[in-house]
Amino acid sequence: MKIAGFGGSSLRAVFATALFLFSATGPSHAVEGVEVFPDPSRIVAVGGSITEIVYALGEEKRLVARDSTSVYPREAFSLPDVGYMRALSPEGVLSVKPTGILALKGSGPREAVDVLKKTSIPYIEVPDDFEHEGILDKIRIVGKAIGADEKAEKLAEKVDADMKAAEALTAGIGERKRVLFVLGLQDGKILGSGSDTAADGIIELAGGVNAIQGFAGYRPLADEAIITAKPDLILMMDRGEGDHEAVEAQLLALPAILSTPAGEQKRLVRMGGAFLLGFGPRTADAVRALAGELYGDTIKQ
């Protein structure tokens, strides 16, 4: 179900845009994750990992709407969609008559968030750090906001143990595999991930090394940078739409890619975007999956 007024752009386009935009928003109702909604009965969740956490806490009855990046669990699709998290409309969010807005940091645009923060509806912003402890903080902040502190602590403890077990799989690896994360192709240029990104974070947690260094965020890569990076594996998101085979064939045919170990061996892996980059309750599974692709039977011995 999609609220009127949001349409046109495909999820692929908006999700790609998401990874380029990191607009900060000033504090209003949200302060350092210590606030609690006075009335948590009708919450709008903005950010896929926030929606996942609310469901994992068994508190989904509190949700009255989600954003378009909230694609897990499947039950969330029954909720009204208020649009893409970085292209929110205040009218769309407010149309579901929420008693609280729980939004991932970086939601926008800034003007829309500023309008929402000036309303009488409490707006709580949740940090999005791409590391082990960041996931636990996110769970606790969401739990506290909706009055489910005890459930959140239990979930955080479970996720913490699961993450530690997943990270331990590659603790004994000596030579780390180099991973090139490709967001997509733009005019024949590869859009790759530098530091301070979800892609960089998941690669490190899985025991790999981000093959691209020297800048933060996502940028088009020069051929020389790709060749110098010498990736052992190319990692991409599977968005569930489009001709993946054609894109992969185009990518693997690029001379710069053919000059790398990953290109020579045609080592390209796709994983669901929300699963791979969500940094929520399922991240330990994503770590295991990527570690398995990188090191195979080595981590099982």
TrEMBL record:
UniProt keywords, alphabetically: Signal
Domain of life per record: Bacteria
Signal peptide: 1-30
Residues annotated as transmembrane: none
Residues in Fe/B12 periplasmic-binding domain copies: 42-298
Phylogenetic placement of the source organism: Bacteria, Pseudomonadati, Pseudomonadota, Alphaproteobacteria, Hyphomicrobiales
UniProt protein name: Hemin ABC transporter substrate-binding protein
Pfam families assigned to the protein according to its UniProt record, in alphabetical order: Peripla_BP_2 (PF01497)
InterPro entries xref list: ABC_Transporter_SBP, ABC_transptr_periplasmic_BD
UniProt-listed PROSITE patterns: FE_B12_PBP
Cross-referenced PANTHER family: HEMIN-BINDING PERIPLASMIC PROTEIN HMUT, VITAMIN B12-BINDING PROTEIN
